[in-house]
Amino acid sequence: MIGPLARWLGRRGASRETARRKVPILGVEGVGKSSLILTLGQYISLKKLGRATIDSAQVFGEYVSHVAAARPLPATMRHDPIGLEIERIPDDGDVRDVDLLLSTEDIPGQDFRMLVEELRRGPVGDPAKRPNSLLGRFSALLSSSHGFIFVVDLVRGMTVEAFKADLQRNIWRAYADQIEPIMTGMLLASRMNADLSGKPVFFVFGKRDLHGLPPEQIARDFERAMAIPLAQLRGKLMNVRQYHVQCAGWGLDSALDDLGMDVLLSDLAHAVGAVRPRRG
Ligand SMILES: Nc1nc2c(ncn2[C@@H]2O[C@H](COP(=O)(O)OP(=O)(O)OP(=O)(O)O)[C@@H](O)[C@H]2O)c(=O)[nH]1
Ligand SMILES: [Mg+2]
Ligand 1 center to residue 205 CA distance, Å? Predict the structure, then answer.
C-alpha cells in the first residue's frame, strides 16, 4: 500500500524528471521583447508564480530603474542571458504547478534582423550544408527549444498617425517584414531538424495601446495575409496561435491585471507540456 509520504516522494520524483521547457522570445529590434520579458517578470514575481533567473538579476534591475523613472527601455545591446523561471500559472481562479524557462538570450534583435534579411534575400540553399550560418544557428535553436514566442509590432518604425492613415497597407507591410521571413525560416529549418511537430509558435502582437486594433481584426487579417505559410506550418503539426498584449505604460503601482499576461502564460505552459499534475 502506498502511504502519503511515498506518494509525495513519487510525485517529487516525477516532477524532477520533468524537463525544463525552453521557450525563446524572438523578434526584430524594438518590437518589445525586453518589455515583454520585463512585464512577465514583474507579473510572475508580483503574483508569486516564479522569478527572474539569478543570471538576469542585474538586467532586470536596470530595466526596473527605467520603469521607475518612466523612461522607455533602451535597445538591448549586450548578449546578457535574460530568463524567467515559472513555477506556477494562473488556472481558473486557482494556480497550477509548471516547469517553464522563458529566455531571450538566444538571438538578439539585431541578429534576428540579419536572419530576416538573409531569408528575405531569397534562396538560401540547403541549410544542412551550412550549420554555422545564421539559418544553421536558427535551426539549432529551433531544435533545442520546446516552443517559440515571436513578438510582432504592427506600428514598428511609424508614428501612430502614419500607421492609421493607411492601416491595411501598413498591417500587411508589418507581416511581410516581420512574420513572413520567419515562417519561411522555420520551414527551411525544418529541413535540417525535421521534428518541429507539437512545438507551439506563439505570435504575440504587442503595443496594443499604440495600434488600438481589436484582436479579432488582427486575427482575421493575419490568417488571410499569412494563409499559405500558416497552412504549411500547421502541416508540420506546429501549433500556431496569436496573443495580444501591452508591455509598457504600466508603473510600479500597477497590478498588471489587464495586459494579457495571464492568458499568455497559462496557454504557453499548457502548449509546451510544462504543466505538472495537480497536487492531490
Ligand atoms: N506604447 C507601448 N510601447 C511599448 C510596448 N512594449 C514596448 N514598448 C516600447 O517599445 C520600445 C522597444 O521596446 P523593447 O522592449 O526595448 O524592444 P526589444 O524588442 O527588446 O528591442 P531590442 O532590444 O532592440 O531588440 C521601448 O521604447 C518600449 O518602451 C507597449 O506595449 N506599448
Ligand atoms: Mg531588448
Answer: 12
Question: Cα(95) to centroid of ligand 2, in Å?
Answer: 30
Residue 56 near residue 85 (C-beta atoms within 8 A)? no
One-character DSSP codes across 12-56: HHHHHHSPPEEEEEE-STTSSHHHHHHHHHHHHHHTTSEEE-GGG
The atom number, within ligand 1, closest to the CA of 210 reads 1
Distance CA 166, CA 278 (A): 49
Of ligand 1's listed atoms, the one at least distance from the Cα of 31 is 19
- CA 1, CA 278: separation in Å to the nearest integer? 21
CA torsion sign, 25 to 28 to 34 to 40?
negative
Q: Is 32 in the pocket of ligand 1 (CB under 6 A)?
A: yes
Mean per-residue pLDDT, 183-195? 74
Q: Domains (ranges, CATH) in the chain?
A: 4-271 (3.40.50.300)
SS3 109: helix
- pLDDT given for residue 139 in this prediction: 80
CB of 27 closer than 6 angstroms to any ligand 1 atom = yes
Ligand 1: residue of 67, 73, 256 to mutate (most ligand atoms within 8 A of CB) is: 73
Residue whose C-alpha cell reads 518590437 in the numeric block: 31
Looking at residues 208-235, what average pLDDT do you find?
90
Q: Is 209 in the pocket of ligand 1 (CB under 6 A)?
A: yes
Q: Is the CB of 212 under 6 A from ligand 1?
A: no
The percent of residues in the chain predicted with pLDDT above 70, rounded, is: 86
Q: Is the pLDDT of residue 97 over 80?
A: yes
3 has pLDDT over 70: no
Beta bridge partners of 204: 151, 243
Question: Collapsing DSSP states into helix, strand and coil, what is residue 146?
Answer: coil
